[in-house]
Amino acid sequence: METVRVVCAHDCPDLCSLLAHVENGKLVRVQGDPDQPFTAGFACAKVNRDAELVNSPQRLKTPLRRTGPKGEGKFVPITWDAALDEITGKWKSIIAESGPLAILGYAYSAHQGQMNRGLMLGLFHALGVSRLNAGTICDSCASAAWEATVGPIGGADPESIVDSDLIVSWGCDLVAVNVHFWAKAEEQRKRGVPVVVVEPRRSKTAERADWHIQVKIGTDAALALGVMHILVRDKLCDRDYIARHTVGFDKVEREVLPRFTPSYTSQVTGVSVADIEKFAAMYGKAKAAYIRIGEGMSRLAQGGQAIRSVALLPGVTGAYAKKGGGALMATADSFELNYAAIRKPSGPAQTRTVNHLRMAEALLELKDPPIRALFIGANNPAVTNPDVIKLRRGLQREDLFTVVHDPFLSVTAKYADIVLPAATYLETEDFYRAYGTYYMQYGPKAVEPQGEAWSNMRLAQTLATRMGLNDPVFGMKPEELLRELFRGAKGQVAAYDPDALRTAGPVRVAPQGPQEFRTPSGKLEFHSEALAAKGTAAMPDWTPDPQEEKDAAKWPLRLLTTPGYFQPHTVYSGVAFLLKREGVPSCVLHPDDAQARNLSQGQKVRLFNERGAIGLTLRISDEIQRGAVLVPGQRPDDEAVSGTINMLCSDRYSDMGEGATYQSTFLDVAAWS
Ligand SMILES: Nc1nc2c(c(=O)[nH]1)N[C@H]1C(S)=C(S)[C@@H](COP(=O)(O)OP(=O)(O)OC[C@H]3O[C@@H](n4cnc5c(=O)[nH]c(N)nc54)[C@H](O)[C@@H]3O)O[C@H]1N2
Ligand SMILES: Nc1nc2c(c(=O)[nH]1)N[C@H]1C(S)=C(S)[C@@H](COP(=O)(O)OP(=O)(O)OC[C@H]3O[C@@H](n4cnc5c(=O)[nH]c(N)nc54)[C@H](O)[C@@H]3O)O[C@H]1N2
Ligand code: SF4
Ligand SMILES: [Mo]
To answer: Which of 23, 130, 172, 231 is 20 to 30 A from 49 via CA?
Structure first.
């Protein structure tokens, strides 16, 4: 048995170092690497099953050509040569007739490292086609809010919590999405450091923490401002830190905080006055309070305000300057690699861009030229995008030439004219940097790709060559691409020799000293001129959202979507064990809401609003608050009673970063008929 030290490429903050056990060229088991301090020898429940993912009988073995109607999933195998001839033939004639903008390159980050991810984007850049404003389905709102507040720089090192005296998981289900951070937090907890969870539902993290503050969905900005109100009232602010490292606090103190009295904050958030007082005192008196900020609370109309208000709290107490204090949303911005070398070789600096979450609109409404060809890679928008009923209408267009590159026949792939089999991360080499820790690592290939699967890197380079592009990156070997990533890199990563990294294993590049701010002022911005210039509120605030109020008057329940514990998005649909662990696609109602509708445990129910209706299986539990319906994960239609949750969600933008607003969805639930 051979053991290969690899890196987990799944869309996850932890970036574990893994040991892949290979026998006669077959992957037999994956486990956590004991020599990576953050991974600490264990992989999560999902990745423990990655041998089953890689060897799944449902893996695509060859390219396919569609034979039935779009969406039905009838295909015949074809050769790579035939597939590539058809793709490049079509693309060339479309470019000749309508120009490159008639092609849309829709490739996302999921489950790969920097080279496989970047080269596909590089291909689209060099072709000059319409490009994706990517990530708006995920973190663009959260990132924009963090950037306006702290700047494009990573937050507090998660490994610094050994020095924290209070850990707050604010809207982050650590047990689901960041389990290695949870393990570290639990160690601290055993040493007597309180762990507090701010969450609308009793998640597994909330269940295991010392204290769960059950906030109403979409009211975190009010809670954070209410805490600030008390910190000011009780003289728990660090005035010296505020004066030296922040801008605009005086204005917030004068114009915003007076409104957020404990009683008003309680009325908005649903948290009792006593608990707000207790939390503020706890936070204000801690010497080094650490806040892990989750992105869930950003996926709604006023999501940017929520992230921004929470990210400002450590500035009020000066926790940002303390070892073990501060806040972490993500670390990715601190890895200042030369991404552009791979992602932007030649090609126009500006082009027509399509917002990731408005694919439906792009396919159905764009003109001059309309989108005639679509390439989708590493993304399953027919399930994971909002407004998927409309999106599927777009994908159904007979005059749209669609290519999907995926290891599985995803729901989206069923709409393709040509499906190309993709290699998984264990079947390609790549270079990885984390988004929730400060590690980077080179990962070799553990096994050869299944069947005729190709890595994104190989596909991008082959398509580029066939399309006549001669940018050097499309002819480079992985080791040469790695050198490109480090040529002109900035900050801490600039000190590393890319050739040495290939055998170095995990490398830690954590920030030293207090939180750095990279805003225009170089300080933590309570008042942001940059936001004001974009027409967004310059100061943190919470006000009711008029559209949400209108929808809430029509529909009695509000949607809470959360990460699945065993089925994050759709990527593990091919692993029977995990499907079973996650159970059938379900929704959760509070016992009072179920009773009011005469619904019982385990029954099939219809979730509906003006966009449509779907069918799920009901679970009744007081883990969810009254007036909300919890739908974990985004599950494909064929696993559910009917449809998928994003059929009920709109493509409305959040207040910052043009992000998704799944949780500004209002609906009702009734018995399935
Ligand atoms: N197991 C698993 N792991 C995953 C994923 C997965 O789906 N499953 N997804 C991966 C991806 S793509 C990402 S982006 C990352 C991060 O994944 P994210 O989706 O950003 O996950 P969290 O940060 O846990 O945020 C979700 C949590 O926010 C809570 N929440 C929702 N609305 C609110 C609110 O208004 N206020 C507050 N306080 N809380 C709220 C939800 O109840 C939920 O527990 O995780 C990755 N890892
Ligand atoms: N309602 C609702 N919707 C959501 C969310 C929510 O909270 N609520 N969360 C959103 C978030 S945070 C995200 S990130 C998105 C995720 O949305 P997606 O990125 O669409 O979801 P995944 O299922 O993770 O992966 C997409 C596809 O990548 C394929 N894949 C895996 N590895 C590779 C590879 O190496 N190469 C190629 N070519 N393909 C590969 C998988 O088989 C899968 O079909 O969903 C968003 N949608
Ligand atoms: S916790 Fe995240 S990084 Fe670690 S093995 Fe699981 S998915 Fe991969
Ligand atoms: Mo995400």
So the answer is: 172
CATH number of domain containing 249? 3.40.228.10
- Same domain as 312, residue 349: no
Cα–Cα distance, 422 to 64 (Å, whole number): 12
Give the model confidence (pLDDT) of 461-503 as tens digits. Answer: 999 999 999 999 999 999 999 999 999 999 999 999 999 999 9
**Residue 429: which residues within 8 A CB-CB, separation 6 or more?**
115, 442, 443, 444, 445, 478
The CA 298 to ligand 1 mean position distance, Å, reads 10
Shared-domain flag, residues 325 and 345: no
Within 10 angstroms of residue 312's Cβ, the number of other Cβ atoms is: 26
> How many domains would you assign to the chain?
3
From 6, 8, 11, 15, mutation site for ligand 3 pocket: most ligand atoms within 8 A of C-beta: 8
358 in ligand 2 pocket by Cβ < 6 Å?
Answer: no
Residues 561 and 658 in one domain: yes
**One domain, residues 269 and 325:** yes
Please check whether residues 351 and 320 belong to one and the same domain: no
Instruction: Please give the share of the chain, as a percent, with pLDDT higher than 70.
Output: 100
How many angstroms is it from 664 CA to the middle of ligand 3? 29
Is-contact 81 601, C-beta < 8 A?
no
Looking at the domain assignment, is residue 40 inside a domain? no
User: 263: domain range?
Assistant: 156-329+514-533
What pTM value is reported for the model? 0.98
Q: Whose CA is nearest to atom 43 of ligand 2?
A: 571
Ligand 1 binding pocket mutation candidate from 177, 275, 561 (most atoms within 8 A of CB)? 177
